Amino acid sequence: MSAGARERQEQFRRPTGEYGTQPGVNAPGAISLVQTPVRYSFIEERQRQEDEYEARFDGMPKRFFSTDLETKRSLDNLAKAASTPQDETLDFETISELAGSLGITGLTEVSDKTRGFLGKNPGEHAWVGRVGDAQVIISSHRSGSAFARYTFRRNPGDPAVEGRGFYMLDARSLAGAARIQHVTGSDLYSHFTQIGTREERVALLEELSATKKSLMQAQNEGRNFQLNKKYVSDRKSEIATAFSDKKHPDTIHQRLMSQTQLNDSFDQVEIDNDVSEADWKEFEEAWADTKDKLPPIPEDRKPKLRIRYLGKHRAAGLFSPHHNTVAIDVHTSGSFVHEMGHYYDHMVYSSPSLSKGFSSLAQRYSATLDVPADRTGKYGRDYYTTPTEIHSRLFEVYAHERLGVRNRMLDPSRFSRFDYAPIMNNPGLKEDAFAFFDKMFA
């Protein structure tokens, strides 16, 4: 491989720049999903997850994660789901390298342009190569591909093309197929020669079905990682007052904070001046009843606890992985167990909400979730289908029904809301979720 080809291939695999493109370079323009300022690797385990995600989906365009793969009925349409229009600008060396990765060898440029083989666009190109006994033609643009397909079927004769026995694809399909191969390990175009007998066609369709299923699973895993990453990013950028120390606690609350038994379980306890001593005493009693029912808190990962007024955040509670802090509203602590669910997910058990075992639970939950039309923007469907949010809702129900948490730290009236309906109306999902948590906390 030449130095220039290696550099271009590296650009194809590792787009750079603010959104993953490198201005002024003939690269495919794929969008990086990793926003530079915020990483998911705030603790060591997340670094590994981040690296695995980047290595697996590096170069995959953002549009892939919102594409309905179920409707893709052909090889080319499936390949294009992992491509971008910029892939049409790839030069010969990059095309050759990508073709080689898919088993297409001996690539040479088609020379006969006099009959309009490439259509009317003088900037289009085409190349011919082989996979086994089958001939493959690659065109730079899909309109050129369609025109070439039409022309050769009616008037073959280009010296580089041997009659009518060839397969045609364009640069976008080639680039998309290379990305799909990287993600799934399957080559969409590895069966150019398997189009003869009925048995071969049936075998090909079965293998393509398996590849499509694998690709849909990869798409789901990638989307889940992005949604969890957004959760982490959003919590990092929450208004600082939710997670920073109060500057002027009064004498009474300084005493309450220094003497509370919760200091044994939390790295730091902060109580807002608006919290009454009576409310705080109730909270302490509720924690005494709850702490031995919840999974243990590791000594080296104790979270901070802040009892605050969170009205400006439109939330009764918040958890920030970057701050390892649970913040609970002064007027209610009913979301405490929900936020602890986030804590266990992000800080203790290495993101079980992103595990393969949880993936089916999240998919079943999302399939029956009916989000009201007025829930849009930050608190739209993406928020409610974020894996860590699903994990915490399931954990709340588990803590209430299985672990026996029945005090002010968990509000079962929340279970009548639309976002708990997929759990409460589906005993099978609930049972499987409880089994998941039993195994996780065993």
Explain the layout of strands and helices.
Blueprint: H1 3-13, H2 44-57, H3 75-80, H4 92-101, E1 105-109, E2 126-131, E3 134-139, H5 142-154, E4 166-170, H6 171-184, H7 198-236, H8 251-259, E5 268-271, H9 277-290, E6 304-308, E7 317-320, E8 325-329, H10 336-348, H11 356-368, H12 381-384, H13 387-401, H14 421-424, H15 427-441
Parallel strand pairs: 3-4, 5-6, 6-8
Antiparallel strand pairs: 1-2, 2-3, 7-8
Helix pairs in contact: 1-4, 4-6, 10-13, 11-15, 13-15
Features:
442 residues, alpha/beta, 4-stranded mixed beta sheet, 15 helices, 44% helix
Q: Could you write a compact summary of the structure shown?
A:
The protein is of the alpha/beta class and 442 residues long. The chain is 44% helix and 9% strand.
What does it look like?
- By secondary structure, the protein is α/β, with parallel strands linked by helices.
- The protein contains 15 helices and eight strands.
- Helix 1 packs across helix 4, helix 10 (336-348) crosses helix 13 (387-401) and helix 11 (356-368) runs antiparallel to helix 15 (427-441).
- The model is unreliable at 4-38 and 146-160 (pLDDT under 50).
- A four-stranded mixed sheet has the order 1-2-3-4.
